[in-house]
Design goal:
By secondary structure, the protein is of the alpha/beta class. Helices cover 33% and strands 19% of the residues. The protein has helices at residues 32-40, 44-51, 88-104, 124-138, 169-194, 202-215, 225-231, 234-240, 294-309, 354-365, 381-387, 399-412, 445-454, 489-497, and strands at 3-8, 18-23, 61-65, 74-79, 109-113, 158-163, 219-223, 248-254, 264-268, 270-274, 315-324, 336-338, 344-346, 372-377, 391-396, 415-418, 436-437, 462-466, 472-473, 483-484. The strands form 5 sheets. Strands 7, 8, 9, 10, 11, 14, 15, 16 and 18 form a 9-stranded mixed β-sheet that branches. Strands 1-6-5 form a 3-stranded parallel β-sheet, with helices on one face. The chain has a 3-stranded mixed β-sheet with strand order 2-4-3, sandwiched between helices. Helix 3 (88-104) crosses helix 4 (124-138). The chain starts with a strand and ends in a 16-residue tail after the last helix. Mean pLDDT is 95; it is low at 503-513. The structure holds ligand BES and zinc ion (ZN) (2 copies). One zinc ion binds at residues 271, 274, 292, 353-354.
Length: 513
């Protein structure tokens, strides 16, 4: 984690190893802070542009040595591309690129002005937040399991934000505190998803959740297999049957106060390894199935940040955690299991285990009489086929919730796309022996998954996010290094943050209906 601090000052006066400025791709004279830097340095920025090597293209950086023209030794210039195409995603990517440059130079500290640029529709604090979130997330690396590697981050260890005016300091500090909570949460999710299954058994996950709860004033209870049996969680326990590791249903509660009414429930799939069970998967890329608890990781991370940010909404998080393995005791295709809701399910594929554990978790969530339920799950490979690796599929029974996710998605850049849940799709799940089956034919796999889950939420407003695609990035992106992305944490936090706001205060936010 990068340590942030804020102090009054100006980047043309500050003596630092490197200061950052951002430029749009445009002709003409520089303005704002760029102009200030340009003037103070005797035209360094202008010369850079006029030299023709750097126009301010999106994602490009340039390194200038000041040779004493400014107290700071270096200026890192980062391009923002065309002004018409600007949004917060551009700012996050710019942060990622700039901090990467700092890391490549081996510098430990970077100085950033609080007013990087002016952009229509965004406050400077929103812009600063996006830049710092992108910078920090781009510097992430997972080194826990490499012996002898001391390097903790790809970027700087420390970032100092300079506030031009003293009056702005409290707001800048508020931004830094938010950035800290958001980044910590995303990195927690990334760490957990990256950990291999032998180092994040359901028991270990439960311990981690308890530690997070202790440190952040959350309540945590862990429902053991024995308790789950008493509660009638037959679907959850069926999946757990094949594993020697005890399963755990992890429950976390955040209380903002009784004035905020019924909680919002977040349910996250927590399969710590999905081999497919008796319906065994092919070995190709099976190691990736350690990421099948990414939904659960998001839920834990979001609760941590919700508590740190003291968001004005009550939240309960539920993470059904177990392995899905073949064994002499494992559940089998053809088995009929009774879920906590009382509905019976014919198991056709033991590889469609996510919906089974979620079924009981969603039923358990009803005990809280939640005002809304969101579930996040790496549920279907079909979703990756349909939408690719950058987008989550979303479906649900409430236009208002779908719209809130859409709005959150626009602010955070974590993309979602809707699928329909028409009743006809349910025909595929009709069973001869039980109330329904756990899989349909091959067609519309993602929707069928959603239809299955819909049978366990009753009339509660609910949205299911199939995050199988975006939880893992096969290549480096400006602020998502190759590997676990932490997708969903920022999106859900945004939705919770906006929860009790009737109207949208920001330019890019939608009004909830
Ligand atoms: N965890 C998988 C989904 C998955 C597959 C995520 C590939 C990411 C990449 C899930 O439990 C699963 O195996 N789903 C089956 C459902 C099928 C049996 C209806 C699938 O997608 O093949
Ligand atoms: Zn599976
Ligand atoms: Zn799975």
């Amino acid at each position: 984690m990068i340590t942030f601090s804020a102090t009054r000052g100006s980047i043309v006066e500050e003596k630092a190893a490197a200061v950052v400025v951002a430029l749009f791709e445009k002709e003409g004279t520089p303005s704002g802070i760029v102009q200030e830097v340009d003037r103070a340095s005797g035209g360094l920025i202008r010369a850079l542009r006029e030299g023709g090597d750097f126009k301010g293209e999106r994602g490009k950086t340039a390194l200038l040595y000041t040779h004493g023209a400014l107290p700071s030794k270096r200026i890192i210039v980062v391009g923002l591309g065309k002004q018409e195409k600007f949004d917060l995603e551009v700012m996050r990517a710019a942060g990622g690129k700039a901090f990467q440059q700092v890391g490549d130079l081996g510098l430990k500290t970077v100085v950033v002005p609080d007013e990087l640029i002016e952009a229509k529709g965004f406050t400077r604090f929103e812009l600063l937040e996006a830049f710092l979130v992108g910078g920090s997330l781009g510097s992430y690396r997972f080194r826990e399991l490499k012996t002898g590697d001391q390097e903790k981050s790809k970027g700087p260890n420390e970032c100092v934000v300079l506030a031009k005016k003293k009056e702005a300091l409290p707001q800048v500090r508020a931004v830094l505190s938010r950035v800290n909570s958001i980044v910590r949460a995303v990195c927690l999710a990334r760490d957990l998803v990256t950990l291999p299954a032998n180092r994040k058994t359901p028991t270990m996950l439960a311990k981690k959740a308890q530690a997070v709860a202790r440190e952040n004033a959350l309540r945590c209870k862990v429902i053991s297999e024995t308790q789950a049996k008493k509660l009638g969680m037959g679907a959850f326990l069926a999946v757990a049957q094949g594993s020697r590791e005890p399963a755990a249903m992890i429950v976390l509660e955040y209380r903002a106060g009784s004035a905020y009414g019924a909680p919002v429930a977040l349910v996250g799939k927590g399969i710590t390894f999905d081999s497919g069970g008796i319906s065994l998967k092919s070995p190709d890329k099976m190691e990736r199935m350690k990421d099948d608890m990414a939904g659960g990781a998001v839920v834990l991370a979001v609760l941590q940040a919700t508590a740190q940010m003291k968001l004005p909404v009550n939240v309960v998080g539920i993470i059904p955690a177990t392995e899905n393995l073949p064994d002499g005791k494992a559940y089998k295709p053809g088995d009929v299991i009774t879920s906590m809701s009382g509905q019976t399910i014919e198991v056709i594929s033991t590889d469609a285990e996510g919906r089974l554990i979620l079924a009981d978790a969603l039923t358990y969530a009803q005990r809280y009489k939640p005002q809304a339920v969101f579930d996040l799950a790496t549920l279907t490979g079909a979703c990756v086929t349909a939408l690719g690796n950058h987008v989550a599929g979303m479906m649900g029974n409430s236009d208002r919730l779908l719209a809130s996710l859409r709005a959150g998605s626009e602010v955070t850049g974590e993309k979602v796309w809707p699928f329909p849940l028409w009743e006809e799709y349910f025909d595929d799940l009709k069973s001869d022996v039980a109330d329904f089956k756990n899989v349909g034919d091959r067609a519309a796999g993602t929707i069928i998954g959603g239809m299955f889950l819909s049978k366990f939420v009753g009339d509660t407003p609910w949205v299911h996010l199939d995050i199988a695609g975006p939880v893992w990035s096969e290549k480096d992106k400006p602020y998502i290094p190759k590997g676990a992305s932490g997708y969903g944490v920022r999106l859900l936090l945004q939705v919770l943050e906006d929860w009790n706001q009737a109207t949208a205060p920001r330019g890019s936010r939608c009004v909830l209906i």
